[in-house]
């Protein structure tokens, strides 16, 4: 009974901590730690409804710690300040109630739990989070709020393909990669050349030593990164100017099933955001859920991998923007695309409760959607058309 009441009391407490976390990205790791710690204590309370006193004591100590850590949060912004004040009030109330429970005794013995181990593991997780934050440090504070408009730039090419600019270069070149298995990149001087009628005559053709598979390739800082056709999960780094292969790597676990079930030709989708290179794929082992991997584009080493909660079923494409995966879903027959799953690698516990974001009305499907972090817009390929989507963004806070 006591345990139940205590649980009841902790839920709003936790909710308010999580609410505050949205306002304090920089403290997400701490908040996550607090959350996990509470959940672990709570779980053990369920199992162990005896000797409640010890746990009440523990809650008391812990909330004291929370109080002192909260005092150190960045609360100079008005809205954050209110949020923290609200939180402090709730903690005080919780403490009063915990004090009351502390006076209620129950005298059975409790199951032994390796408390120190749990504590250590949680601290390690918090540290890991902190490291990730340092790694993904670019000034990335925006999230998608909506899709403002669409511009169909051209209709050329195969049903599947991709087109892009290089967000890591100052030049205005446009690259066209026609088809889902091909070995020729067309390079245009700029978007005007690309839009001309005889555009292919004006293009520089770059032939790859081995063809690509799917439409998930990406161009960054003068290199094309692509999934090599005929390989399970080999990613090639190709120098477009020198026309030779610079490096290659394997992406373990990838390549067995499509990244998005509605775009079966793409097994590995690559993406560039403010943080650099990412790979997106799905695995049977994760129930067909989407897995994202941060790759160092210079060394071609895997930096970190996340199993997301986003399904690849009914997905047609996805993109990364500001550490966050946005998955685009559609109907198998092709309808209006919508973003329905969002996964922020730095705030996975709190993955934003965003409303479904619809793409501007256009019946059909996308075989590729790539975010360009320099221009903050999407380059998409839909049924042979090359499309640009302009975005509404807002502060993550
Ligand atoms: C991110 O880290 C790099 C090097 O690791 C550093 O040069 C850069 O200034 C950092 N950026 C921010 C916004 O902290
Ligand atoms: C793209 O490939 C299709 C056939 O798959 C072809 O009809 C079309 O002309 C190609 N477009 C360009 C720009 O090469
Ligand atoms: C396209 O190129 C052909 C051959 O070079 C030329 O005869 C034709 O006039 C060009 N069309 C346009 C619209 O520029
Ligand atoms: C790529 O080509 C450049 C010059 O053409 C050469 O210096 C370099 O060694 C080549 N790299 C590889 C990996 O073949």
From TrEMBL:
Disulfide bonds join 140-322. Residues 1-21 form the signal peptide. Keywords: Coiled coil, Disulfide bond, Secreted, Signal. Residues 139-395 form the Olfactomedin-like domain. The keyword Transmembrane helix does not apply. It is found in: Secreted. GO terms for biological process: signal transduction. Residues 70-97 form a coiled coil. Its main location: secreted. One of its GO terms (cellular component) is extracellular space. This is Olfactomedin-like domain-containing protein. PROSITE patterns: OLF.
């Amino acid at each position: 009974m006591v345990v139940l009441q205590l649980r009841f009391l902790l839920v709003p407490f936790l909710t308010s901590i999580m609410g505050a976390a949205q306002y304090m990205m920089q403290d997400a790791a701490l908040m996550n730690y607090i959350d996990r710690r509470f959940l672990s204590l709570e779980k053990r309370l369920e199992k162990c409804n005896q000797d409640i006193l010890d746990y009440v004591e523990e809650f008391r100590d812990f909330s004291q710690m929370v109080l002192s850590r909260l005092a150190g949060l960045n609360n100079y912004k008005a809205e954050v300040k209110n949020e923290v004040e609200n939180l402090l009030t709730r903690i005080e109330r919780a403490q009063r109630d915990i004090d009351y429970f502390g006076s209620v005794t129950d005298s059975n013995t409790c199951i032994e739990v390796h408390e120190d181990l749990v504590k250590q593991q949680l601290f390690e997780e918090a540290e890991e989070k902190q490291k990730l934050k340092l790694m993904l440090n670019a000034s990335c504070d925006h999230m998608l709020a909506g899709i403002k408009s669409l511009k169909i730039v051209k209709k050329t090419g195969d049903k599947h393909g991709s087109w892009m600019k290089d967000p890591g270069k100052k030049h205005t070149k446009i690259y066209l990669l026609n088809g889902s298995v091909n070995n020729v990149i067309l390079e245009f001087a700029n978007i005007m050349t690309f839009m001309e009628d005889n555009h292919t005559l004006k293009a520089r053709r770059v032939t790859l030593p081995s063809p690509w598979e799917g439409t998930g390739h990406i161009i960054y800082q003068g290199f094309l990164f692509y999934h090599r056709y005929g390989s399970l999960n080999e990613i090639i780094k190709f120098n477009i100017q020198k026309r030779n292969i610079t490096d290659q790597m394997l992406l373990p676990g990838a390549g067995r099933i499509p990244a998005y079930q509605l775009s079966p030709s793409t097994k590995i989708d690559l993406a560039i955001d403010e943080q650099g290179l990412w790979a997106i794929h799905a695995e049977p082992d994760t129930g067909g859920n989407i897995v994202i991997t941060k790759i160092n584009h210079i060394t071609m080493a895997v930096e970190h991998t996340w199993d997301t909660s986003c399904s690849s079923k009914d997905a047609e494409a996805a993109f990364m923007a500001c550490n966050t995966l946005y998955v685009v879903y559609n109907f198998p027959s092709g309808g209006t695309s919508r973003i329905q799953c969002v996964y922020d690698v730095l705030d996975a516990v709190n993955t934003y409760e965003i409303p479904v974001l619809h793409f501007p009305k256009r019946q059909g499907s996308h075989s590729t959607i790539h975010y360009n972090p320099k221009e903050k817009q999407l380059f998409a390929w839909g049924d042979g058309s090359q499309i640009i989507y302009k975005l509404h963004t807002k502060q993550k806070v």
